Amino acid sequence: MEDNGLISKKRCSALTWQYYGFKPNANGEPADLTEAICRLCKKKVKVKDAQTTNLRSHIQIHHPAVAASFEPRSAAASQSGKNSSLTPIAAAFACGKKYDKSSLKWTQCTLAVTHFLVKEMVPLSLVDKTEFRSMLQTFDRQYEVPSRNYFSRTAISELYNKVKPEVMSNISSADYVALTTDMWSSSNTLKPYMSIMPESHTADYLADSLLESVKEWHVDERKMSCVTTDNRANFVAAIRQLNWPWLNCFGHNLNVAINNSLQKEKASTDRAFGVCRAINGAFSKSWPQRRELMKAQEELNIPHHSLITSTCDPVPNHSEAISHTVSVPLQTTLGTLEEIAC
Predict the structure, then answer these.
(1) In whole angstroms, what is the distance from residue 78 CA to residue 98 CA?
(2) pLDDT per residue as tens digits for the range 268-318
(3) Bridge-partner residues for 185, per DSSP?
(4) Which of 30, 99, 190, 286 has CB 3.0 to 4.6 Å from 106, enough for a Cys bridge?
């Protein structure tokens, strides 16, 4: 529960009080104990002799969804002549009502979904999927997740604006900063772009855009240990123009070296790749063959690795090139295939 500058009432066990606070005085104590402020809507509610009657009434009238979450009053309280504030029917209606989009609970739920989308880097269209929305309804049927347009236009932008100052603070306090940049191509339009969106891709425009980005994020150029890019001439010229320390990308160099080597031996490698594709296709389309592969792996006491379908094609990016190179157990797979072939 956000405090919004309010302080809680001390020595209170009633559930109702968690939704109220008081303005503090100079000593950090409640300035006026007869005037509580609702943390959900910021309205003032009169309090008499520390009783919660007015507080509960306010929540029942203005925040029925919250009121429905109150635990039933104890049997002892019922025996003392005080009835439950909500009848079962009223509680059922309150539970069926969706959270107001200005309520704290709706905001918390939406922020949690936003964090999930951003940190897991899943498509925003996920929030419009029937099963995803059904899952959230199972967790909390009073919460209605907004459409992906809300996340793309509002929620993610708000989260970005909230996190950016924290990142800038971390950068400013760092002893050294290393940067990297690259150019990508959209799979839909084949239009090249980079995160800072320069108007053109000449060395001059790249240098201006990089410098502008460094200033925007308050990066001290004196703390820059190096800037890593691939070997494209416009990038190299831009970094040298800025007089920044430059380091070429190992992943890019590895990818270029492999592709150049394969190109030189194209006559022989094409046949080898063709055989690999044929073997891969046979195992991919045949369950008995896959079963024999797993059986052979068990007999040889080696991990159950499936055949990689993308290793015969050009690797699309540097990090993936490194990943394929260091993680694919090629010798193990070839050994297994040889055992099956025999």
Answers:
(1) 30
(2) 788 888 888 888 888 878 888 888 888 888 988 888 877 766 544 444 444
(3) 192
(4) 99
Burial of 322 (0-12, 13-18, 19+ CB in 10 A): middle
| Residue 257: C-alpha distances to residues 72, 167, 271, 273, 313 (Å) | 71, 36, 20, 18, 15
Computed over every residue of the chain, the mean pLDDT equals 78
Is residue 315 within 8 A of residue 255, CB to CB? The reply is yes
Rounded-to-integer distance, Cα 280 and Cα 339, Å: 15
Angstrom distance (rounded) from CA 97 to CA 82: 26
Q: Checking DSSP bridges between strand 192-193 and strand 184-185, what pairing results, if any? A: antiparallel
pTM score: 0.50
Residues 225-243 have pLDDT tens digits of 999 988 889 889 999 999 9
* Phi, psi dihedrals of residue 255, rounded to the nearest 5°: -65, -45
